[in-house]
Structures are given as structure tokens and as C-alpha cells.
Model the fold of this input.
Amino acid sequence: MRIVVKIGTSTLAHPTGHLNIRRVEELCRILSDIKNAGHQVILVSSGAIGMGVGKLGLRERPKDIPTKQAAAAVGQCELMYIYDKLFSEYHHTVAQLLITGEDISNETRHQNFSNTIRRLLELGALPILNENDTVATQEIVIGDNDTLAAIVARSVQADKLILLSDIDGLYTADPRTDPDAKLISRVTRIDDALMDRAGGNGTAQGTGGMVTKLQAARICMECGCDMVIANGDTPAHLYDILEGRPVGTLFTEERL
Done:
């Protein structure tokens, strides 16, 4: 099975912006085990700006583009150093790909990065992707890694996209404010009403919210790729998802 796993900033880092070491170590161990079982794994990792914020000692996530780019430049180095170190302990080689909006919109560049990912998988490497925040501007920005992960899943014909976030899945209402909100375990159709009920950004450290996750699900469902939203607090849920057990919210086309 070819799977894309997207890890949000809230899963990777503490609210301080510093790395959640225990969780990242567990994620890398489990993803290595999944690769050992024969699956192809592509990782879309947020966290560069968030980690840069922590390492630079900034009090909050920057709002202006130059400071975001500076934080990303610092944080991306740290992020890849950690991934390389942890995956190397399990004898897996990682590769870094930084993508901008032009790499998606330009057909030739899109094909080039898709070919690179496929070749890396053939060579047994684990591709790690992030938006290239160090050069992205409002004109060429993808905007969030939920969308990037869905585009990657579509580009490489992945079987499944798993979004690890700070929420258990899609709810009937915002569980942070509505105690009666119930988890929706399966979605086979995304309509305008469902999109309208989705909220805004998730956390102060991240850029995504439920809207971006539903947009990602729509991209996946249109190309026959299943998508799951699950809580990144429990990395072992990755095993359950790949074994078909109900975890979080599954987005899948209704099959006859």
C-alpha cells in the first residue's frame, strides 16, 4: 500500500513551539515499522515555521512574510536533522522535497516532482515534503499542508492519505465549544452544507483547520484515494488505520 501521512504542527510541537520529543520519536518508530512491513510511505510534515519560532525565541507565530520565511529557514534545518537522525536509527533513508504553488500549477514542474517522489520510493527512500515557506509569497503559496498532502496523494496515486491533527476527526459541531458534538466516523459525500459547518484555523501554531481538511478530502475522493483524519496524540492509531479498524473519520467514495 502507498500511503501519505501528514503531520500537523500541533502533533509535532508543544504549544511553546519546541519539539514534542516523545511523540516524534514514536511517530518515526511506527512509520519505520510500517515501511518494514512493505508499505511505501510519504511524509508531509508541517512544523518548520513553528520550530523556527521556538528556536529563535519569538513570542508568537510571525504574521509578516519575511519573518515567516526566516523562521522557516531556521526551523526546516532542525526538522530535517531530527527526521534524518530518528529514521536512520531504523535504517531508513529520508529525502527532502520543498514545494511551492508554482510546482503544482506548472504542468512540467508538477510532473518533475511527481517523478522524483516515485523514483525515491523505488529506491526505498522515505520522501518528506513541506511547503517551501522560505521563498513562498502570497502569489505562489499553497497555503496549508492538508492541501499539499492531498495533491501529493493524487499525484502519486496513493491508496490512502492520513491527516494527523489535534482533533479526533470530523464532528457534528465544534467539540471545543459544544459538549454535545459527536464524532462522524464515515463520510461518503462532501457537500456545501458540510463545508459551511467547518470552522476556522485549529491552533495558534498551525495554519490548517477543518475547512482545509475537507478540501483535502474532496481532492482525494475525486481520485479514488481514501482519507482519514485522526488524532496525532496516539501515533499507534496508524496501525489500526492500515488494518481497517475504525479510527477518527474515514472519507471514502461510496462503493457499490
Summary: The chain has ten helices and eight strands. Residues 200-208 have pLDDT under 50 and may be disordered. The longest strand covers residues 2-7.
